[in-house]
Amino acid sequence: MQEFNVGERLRYMRQTAGLSQRQLAEASGVPHGQISMIETNRSSPSVASLRKILGGLNVTMSEFFEPDAPISQSVFFKPQDLRDLTTRLYSTLDDPRGKITLQQVGDARAHNLQILYERYEPGADTGAQMLEHVSHEGGVVIAGEVEVTVGDQVALLKAGDSYLFESTQPHRFRNIGDREAIVVSACTPPYL
């Protein structure tokens, strides 16, 4: 896979939007230094941090990582048709530990529904900074185990277990096990 420069892409999108680093930080609710560290590739953002920053630009992760991907009117999708939302975050890593792979079915914005095929390698974590957004989401664990935190509730979900909650509650997903975990989830309106 060709190396993807997250910092360069973020700087380009911020400048295209006519925002300073400080303005983007304020719009995203993140520290100003975090934008600078990411843009200069001195820090790799977690999925949660990157999503929060992209929210300040009103851009989805799909638009960030695959800006030239054609809009599909397809009804059916093969694995290779799913839109990759995260792999490029890890393109420079040699070790897959801690990696999260999120693949989206079709055009989430067009349908106001985001369906994801999620893979969490051992040690993967959406980030210590909890996710919060205006949505509803649910999912089913297909393989492995995922620790899900929603507000002050924490559960270790195994294959066959599921979750459903209002996404304004702070939440986090972690694979604390020693094997890959797979989840199929849905979110409306789309968040990533």
From TrEMBL:
The keyword DNA-binding applies. CDD domains: cupin_XRE_C (cd02209), HTH_XRE (cd00093). One of its GO terms (molecular function) is DNA-binding transcription factor activity. Residues 10-64 form the HTH cro/C1-type domain. GO terms for cellular component: cytosol. The keyword Cytoplasm does not apply. Keywords: DNA-binding. InterPro entries: Cro/C1-type_HTH (IPR001387), Cupin_2 (IPR013096), Lambda_DNA-bd_dom_sf (IPR010982), RmlC-like_jellyroll (IPR014710), RmlC_Cupin_sf (IPR011051), TransReg_Diox_bact_type (IPR050807). PANTHER family: HTH-TYPE TRANSCRIPTIONAL REGULATOR, HTH-TYPE TRANSCRIPTIONAL REGULATOR PUUR. This is Transcriptional regulator. It comes from Gemmobacter aquaticus.
